[in-house]
Amino acid sequence: MENKPFKYNPITKEKDLDVLIEEVGDARIVMLGEASHGTSEYYTWRTAITKRLVQEKGFSFVAVEGDWPECYAVNRFIKGYQKSGSKIADVLQVFRRWPTWMWANWEVAALIEWMRDYNHLRNANEKIGFYGLDVYSLWESLEQILKFLENNDGQAVEAAKMAINCFEPFNRDPQTYARATAFVPTDCENEVVEMLQKIQHHRTFTDDPENDFNTRQNALVAVNAEKYYRAMVRGGGSSWNVRDSHMMETLDRLMELHGRNSKAIVWEHNTHIGDASFTDMADDGMYNIGELARKQYGQNQVKLVGFGTYQGSVIASKSWGAPMQKIEVPPAVEGSWEHMLHKINTDDKIILSKDLVNVPELQGRIGNRAIGVVYDPKYEMFGNYVPTVIPGRYDAFVYFDETEAVHPLHMKSTSGKEPDLYPWNY
């Protein structure tokens, strides 16, 4: 006999998203989560939701948990800028840093193809964009700044060169830089701040209004990335907060760029988009972009949608920087949110938080599955469940009983030298 303690909405086809689109209402920001960075269904259903939000509610852009320079290359492609590429698979090869599979996959290729087709017959100010919110691309951002300024702003180029020269002794290795600044009283903070100030004071003019924004954003990435890598060695939640504060600041800047009526769709892990104040992250003084957006724009203007699964497979790595592989995801542990949804029945479903207010067992914290880019199912019960007040953390939750791994464009990942001291890998 089916156990149905609260209302849910089965989801098998795109029409079933009606209940979620209605829940969005007039919100300006919709954040679409994921319980891993390597599950196909999360990408494909977020794409379906994104299409409807753009077509039916006039959303302006998609902002993702990716690095700014690489995502801006994709943005140029979908808007048809000159010399931006002609083949989607080739353009997605810009995602060369581990974990490459997060954005260089066939599911993302389908999204990008749709976005480019949607933009094809639209005026420049009507085209939807694709941007990265993350903070990891320190050296890539510095190089893009230098290249742009050499051609456009001779007054600011020296500041950019000074910033790059300051980082040179660390061999493009954020881990080396982070550890060095822990023991040496000097760092590159002054150089990157001065560079940002120079760029802000010497505005450049080009035919592409986004070029100027791109340069300034790369400078902001360099400033905040430097803070992030220094914060890593201190431990605790400080580096996490630097990262999510940067993502919120970038989202604000994008909203301003797109005008007073702009609307944003955000794709990030549940640990970023689900309001951290309703999890044990708050116990450690941590916050995230979902919580910050609610505080800044208001509850009614921000909709947070979590995603999760009971079992299946995922693309991930067994250690930081290791080759990607397909890994089996075991059934969710007993007592978790995903286990509870599986016990109701094996339907894929959408649950609205407003339908959970009278469910006693959900008014306190229960485990909510979270798989990062590093994953070993043998240890899942010890670190892959975030204690969560579900109705507070999300406005809605999309559940799949069984999922499959995302489909990377290139399964053989060339892992560069990446930090092995990240306290979180979501």
UniProtKB/TrEMBL annotation:
A Pfam family assignment = Erythro_esteras
InterPro entries of this UniProt entry? Emycin_Estase, Hydrolase/PRTase-associated, UCP036794_erythomycin
Share an example GO biological-process annotation for this protein.
response to antibiotic
Question: By what name is this protein known?
Answer: Erythromycin esterase family protein
Q: What is the lineage of its organism?
A: Bacteria, Pseudomonadati, Bacteroidota, Cytophagia, Cytophagales
